[in-house]
Amino acid sequence: MMQVFTYLLLGFLVVCAVSVSLSKNLLNSILIFMSYSLVMSVIWILLESPDLAITEAAVGAGITSVLFFLTLKKIQAMIGSDREEKEGEEKDE
Amino acid sequence: MSKKLSPQEYEKTLSYRLGCWLSGSPDPFVGKLEMKPQQILQEDIEEQQQREEDREKLYERIYDIENNTEVRLFQKVYRVFCVVFCVVLVGLLLAAVSYLPTEGKGEKPVNNEVYERYVEKGLEETGAVNLVTGMILDYRAFDTLGESHVLFIATCTVLILLRVDPGKGKKKGEEENDRLYEPKNDIILQTAARVLVPLIIIFGIYIILGGHLGPGGGFSGGAVIGAGLILYLNAFGFAKTERFFTAKTYKIMSFSALACYALAKSYSFYTGANGIESVIPLGTPGAILSSGLILVLNICVGVVVSGTMYTFYVMFRKGGY
């Protein structure tokens, strides 16, 4: 049973890794990258290295993605963000 | 005999300029070199239209694939090259994997006397129940010191690249800009943060302090604390976090942590290299105050990492504290 679960997670990793590079929307890519890190931390626990699992969950799924989000917002690539809407309203006026 | 220089010649020497720089006198090039501030592009409507038309024409000429044979050729070659490159790379990597020794074979390079020593004598020599921490903070503490410094240098680089000079933002749009950085007062986020942030930070401290007893250690605990701080900042804004965490706090924290690490570790290097018995007791394995220097080093690494994570976030978001 555990074996099947591990293979499922590994397959999910491969799917994530491929779809990050194929996704057109940058926000989607980041979300997929985040879920990749989360699944990776589960796999670290299955491989009996909880040290790495904690680090992977905190750094990979937490801080790296937050920094990516911020960068996206800075370069105004987040579609539908507040700022864009605001600017659009100003232009209409 | 040193040669006596005339005042004009002395002003040209490196030592004079270094002295000037140290005493804080202004840059001698200011006023002599031509320095113009960057100006906003101003152009008529006609010029602007002309420019945009030119640009569109240029794009049309470039992407006119039916007539532009070079682009067509390039696109075909590019696709073929992409596929060939991927196939070759995958093949090479798979071939390299097939040369690896199989799992559990005796002559694998991993199976040497080093790991036997770690497993058999690790608990006795380092006093840490968690062997991983014993390895990274005792046997290989020098590597970890380098890693902490890499983090510190990374923060310095981010500071150099992203820091916004606080004196130059005093224009009319400052208030408006400042609101972009500040989050809206979201009640859901604030309520969740009020519950979660203390738990996250306590969990991080637990990971750091229990690094030598169970899974965890300075890096992971520091990252967890940094994430908690970022959540707090997002919920309540800069006004609240700046009461306890500013650039000065970060400087003092990371400097003292790195210095403490370096001093503590140079003591054990000194005693180890000269064969002196270290006075730091290893304690009983399993107790919180055990395993010699590992607890102190864990706290140092945790402080550096949490400060670094938080500073990264602040620099990316606002460009300064």
CATH architecture of chain A: Up-down Bundle
Describe the largest sheet of chain A: none
Strand content of chain A: under 5%
Mean pLDDT of chain B: 81
Biggest beta sheet summary of chain B: none
Specify the CATH homologous superfamily of chain A: NADH-ubiquinone/plastoquinone oxidoreductase chain 6, subunit NuoJ
What quaternary form is this? heterodimer
Query: For the largest interface in this structure, which chains are involved and how many residues does each contribute?
Result: A-B, 16 and 21 residues
Q: What is the total tally of β strands of chain A?
A: 0
**Rg of chain B computed from alpha carbons, rounded to a whole number of angstroms:** 30 Å
Radius of gyration based on Cα positions of chain A:
17 Å
Topology of this protein?
The complex is a heterodimer of chains A (93) and B (321).
Chain A: H1 2-22, H2 26-46, H3 50-74, H4 82-92
Chain B: H1 7-12, H2 14-23, H3 45-63, H4 69-98, H5 113-126, H6 131-139, H7 141-162, H8 174-181, H9 187-209, H10 218-236, H11 238-241, H12 247-274, H13 294-317
Helix pairs in contact in B: 5-6, 6-7, 7-12, 7-13, 9-10, 10-13, 12-13
